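Appendix C: a fully annotated inverse folding record. The material below is reproduced so that readers can follow the format used throughout the book. The structure is listed first as tokens, followed by the designed sequence.
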């Protein structure tokens, strides 16, 4: 195929078969995707997650889609609508596949947030730490959960679990408009805009698009930056001042929504806005000052109880860069699949970052005109030293860098990219590349292979740990039965918190995850499971009862994150099953739960090291036990 990407943009190819040519690879790819998801079996996932479970036709469809996009976006005769259609097709294949092939929603964190929404609906209002323990942190940042509670009532569904499997697709679609507005601030070159969007979606493997406050807060974060870049710092007299006043109100509404919904995003937004102040006019301080004031106002009022308790740990974590790459017990990917998918994610991110550096170096005019976007990409980096955020800061920093990184990475793949026409014309630093002249080293096949490799690498990076994240219907039914039967005041003991509905009824049910306890105590449980667990589960007052829950999801998380092996956890289950101190209540192929008999439960008080309504490391479920380990 002839490369016409450097020809002057003219009229589209007219009406007829040629004008519809881009539809052929797009429709072919979608047809292959439909066939693949209909013939994918997820009943037996291995350590490679969805990668090996997908029907091979899926990979062919993804390759056809990528090639079709590349040839279409570089052809100046094609209207921009075709590029948008390909991006939507990519989103469908990326973010809707899991919703289609899995019969239940993914991620223990999503189920946790569903529990928070359900609790808000049941309690009818916000509660304090005296009432719900550490889970009160969610009531101190209630924006997302209150909105979801209202949506559940509006839709008339039983819970957010009815739609949260589709949330990754919805939240990713929310990013498109602000991302396009940001890119259009610096260029009119639709090749650069849409290739930047494609690379952003491909490199956004971190997984923060699930049902969480972070997913909405990030979209609003981009919305604020789009408003600031496009509406501030422009002259216009009294009319301009009135217009900016209106946009300040809009910006304030967006910032308030972020501030009351999430802990980290306001801080990321502040550092980005401060970075923009370095290259914009003095009145651009208005967005930064507004954000700082609103953020501090919330921290010093509604969020003060949590921040007061967490402040000592937050101060100690400043400068602890090593906390972002913590390894050891429970934090090290174990097994061929876990290690391979972790390296796929690292190579994908490294490649996009390297492309961005190349684009910054090669595209001199672009880096001069898009300096604000370059600063936005670098602004989150100091957050590495501010906190490890439960070993997740490295993933969050990468995500907040991506809008700028993807833009310059796209510039590395394209010949002769153009900034805004008016600015390029006014640039006296040198002429832009002439149409029809291809830069040395920029061809057609090489960038296509890079784009294809990145697009394919997204799948293992994003879905390679689905053995941990997927809970079969039998597991959901088992856990639901447990919480339906457990009286108020009961305690549920489990290996870890990686199971669905783990936070159901957290206002009345306590939890203890023994793999999060000290390693010494875990070794005691492995040596003598029956005696150690019976001792840990004593002291539950009537009418409450003590239950032990062991499930498929706990086993997968324990094995793939270097905790206990399958043989060790099976030994725990066999010891409890054979003990007269425990009674089997329910069992299926996804797990079982046992009740500690009343006569065995009388005695010493239950341990408190990890018990209680614990585990609320962040308003979106951040924490080394929940969110790290490669996501």
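Designed amino acids, in order:
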């Amino acid at each position: 195929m002839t490369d016409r990407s450097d020809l002057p943009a003219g009229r589209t190819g007219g009406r007829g078969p040629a004008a519809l040519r881009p539809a052929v690879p797009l429709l072919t790819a979608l047809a292959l995707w439909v066939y693949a998801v209909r013939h994918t079996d997820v009943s037996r996932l291995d350590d490679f997650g969805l990668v090996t479970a997908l029907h091979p036709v899926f990979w062919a469809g993804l390759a056809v889609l990528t090639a079709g996009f590349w040839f279409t976006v570089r052809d100046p005769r094609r209207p921009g609508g075709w590029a948008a259609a390909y991006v939507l097709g990519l989103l469908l294949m990326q973010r809707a596949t899991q919703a289609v092939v899995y019969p239940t929603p993914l991620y223990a964190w999503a189920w946790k947030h569903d529990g928070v929404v359900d609790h808000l609906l049941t309690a009818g209002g916000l509660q304090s730490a005296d009432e719900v323990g550490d889970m009160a942190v969610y009531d101190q940042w209630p924006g997302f959960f209150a909105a979801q509670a209202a949506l559940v009532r509006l839709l008339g569904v039983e819970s957010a679990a009815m739609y949260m499997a589709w949330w990754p697709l919805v939240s990713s679609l929310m990013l498109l408009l602000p991302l396009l507005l940001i890119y259009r601030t610096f260029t009119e070159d639709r090749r650069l805009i849409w290739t930047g969007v494609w690379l952003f979606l491909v490199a956004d493997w971190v997984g923060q698009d699930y049902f969480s406050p972070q997913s909405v807060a990030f979209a609003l974060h981009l919305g604020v930056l789009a408003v600031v870049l496009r509406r501030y710092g422009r002259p216009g007299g009294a009319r301009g001042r009135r217009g900016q006043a209106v946009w300040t109100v809009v910006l304030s509404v967006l910032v308030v929504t972020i501030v009351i919904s999430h802990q980290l995003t306001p801080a990321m937004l502040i550092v980005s806005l401060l970075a923009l102040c370095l290259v914009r006019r003095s009145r651009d301080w208005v967005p930064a000052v507004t954000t700082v004031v609103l953020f501090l106002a919330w921290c010093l009022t509604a969020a003060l109880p949590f921040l007061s308790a967490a402040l000592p740990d937050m101060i100690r974590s400043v400068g602890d860069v090593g906390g972002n790459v913590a390894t050891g017990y429970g934090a090290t990917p174990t097994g061929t699949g876990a290690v391979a998918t972790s390296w796929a994610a690292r190579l994908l991110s490294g490649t996009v970052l390297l492309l961005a550096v190349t684009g910054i170096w090669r595209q001199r005019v672009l880096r001069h005109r898009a300096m604000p976007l370059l600063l936005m990409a670098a602004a989150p980096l100091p957050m590495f030293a501010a906190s490890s955020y439960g070993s997740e800061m490295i993933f969050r920093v990468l995500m907040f860098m991506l809008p700028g990184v993807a833009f310059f990475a796209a510039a590395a793949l394209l010949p002769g990219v153009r900034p805004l026409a008016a600015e390029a014309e006014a640039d006296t630093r040198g002429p832009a590349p002439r149409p029809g002249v291809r830069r040395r080293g920029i061809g057609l096949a090489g960038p296509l292979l890079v784009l294809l490799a990145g697009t394919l690498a997204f799948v293992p990076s994003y879905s390679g740990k689905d053995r941990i994240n997927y809970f079969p219907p039998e597991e959901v039914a088992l856990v639901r039965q447990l919480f339906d039967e457990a009286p108020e005041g009961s305690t549920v003991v489990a290996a870890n918190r990686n199971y669905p509905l783990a936070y159901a009824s957290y206002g009345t049910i306590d939890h203890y995850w023994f793999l999060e306890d000290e390693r010494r105590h875990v070794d005691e449980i492995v040596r003598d499971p029956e005696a150690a667990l019976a001792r840990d589960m004593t002291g539950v007052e009537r009418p409450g009862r003590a239950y032990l829950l062991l499930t498929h999801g706990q086993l997968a998380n324990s094995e793939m994150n270097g905790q206990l092996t399958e043989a060790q956890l099976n030994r725990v289950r066999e010891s409890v099953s054979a003990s007269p101190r425990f009674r089997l209540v329910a069992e299926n192929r996804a797990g079982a739960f046992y009740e500690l008999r009343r006569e065995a439960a009388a005695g010493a008080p239950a341990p408190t090291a990890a018990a209680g309504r614990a585990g609320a490391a962040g308003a979106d479920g951040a924490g080394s036990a929940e969110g790290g380990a490669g996501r």
